[in-house]
Amino acid sequence: VVENQDLQDSIKPQKVEFRSLNFNSTLHWQPGTAREARDTVYFVQYKVYGQSTWQNKDDCWGIQGHVCDLTSEMSDVQEPYYGRVKAASAGVYSNWSLSCRFTPWRETMIGPPTVTVVHTNKSIILKLQAPRSPYKRKRGSQIPMSNYYDLLYQVFIINNLLNEQHRVLVYEGKDKVIKIDLRPGVSYCIETKTYVPMLDRSSAYSSRQCTVL
Q1: Do 144 and 133 form a contact (C-beta atoms < 8 A)?
Q2: Count of structural domains within the chain
Q3: Across the chain, where does the E strand assignment appear?
Q4: Which of 95, 98, 93 is nearest to 39 (CA)?
Q5: Are strands 114-119 and 97-98 parallel, antiparallel or unpaired?
Q6: Are residues 126 and 50 in the same domain?
Q7: 4 and 96 share one domain
Q8: Is residue 118 domain-shared with residue 59, that is, in the same domain?
Q9: pTM above the 0.70 mark?
């Protein structure tokens, strides 16, 4: 019995946590302190805060990986959720390891907008699109993140003659089409961010797009 108790404790999953980008929400964990045996498998359950019963996540029942996608189970993004994971090895089951409470709307990371650059003679026109959530409208199109938040777009210019690391904020606002005048013959790079004023949170920078007029 003591050996079983030791095995139970040593296979118990560690560091159970949610990670989420644009409401694509996954539960992550690390193996227990024991060297992970080949036959170790994991079982995942989830629930909304305040519910008494846990739900099994069938796709993550007896899996060997350390990640479970709970996006479709967490579509009510204002609700707080919990996840929990237990491990089994050699016929022994660990106790459950619990995540912290996680509310997608409050805690998901927002991605940068997608950017299309159109050149004219003396300027560039940027067309920005809000990142998309995984959730769909009745007609099947993905709901943009701007449906869930008041988003602002930030546009940065890097003048490659001056300093590749020096970004200048040239626009912040809600417009999706932005015209920027540039000097011909100079190489510029554009980066953008999404900013959520209500949460005071910014996305990562978009990938850099460089251009010479």
Answers
A1: yes
A2: 2
A3: 14-21, 24-30, 41-48, 55-63, 67-69, 81-89, 92-93, 97-98, 114-119, 123-129, 132-136, 142-144, 152-159, 168-173, 177-181, 187-196, 201-202, 209-212
A4: 93
A5: unpaired
A6: no
A7: yes
A8: no
A9: yes
Structure tokens at 142: 């993905």
Same-domain check for residues 134 and 172 = yes
For residue 144, the tally of other CB atoms under 10 A from its CB is 16
The full length of the chain comes to: 213
pLDDT in tens, 178-210: 999 988 888 889 999 999 999 999 999 999 998
The amino acid sitting at 63 is I
DSSP string for residues in 16-38: EEEEEETTEEEEEEE--SSPPPT
Nearest to 195 by CA among 150, 165, 128: 150
pLDDT in tens, 92-138: 999 999 999 999 999 999 999 999 999 888 889 999 999 999 999 99
| Domain span at 168 | 114-212
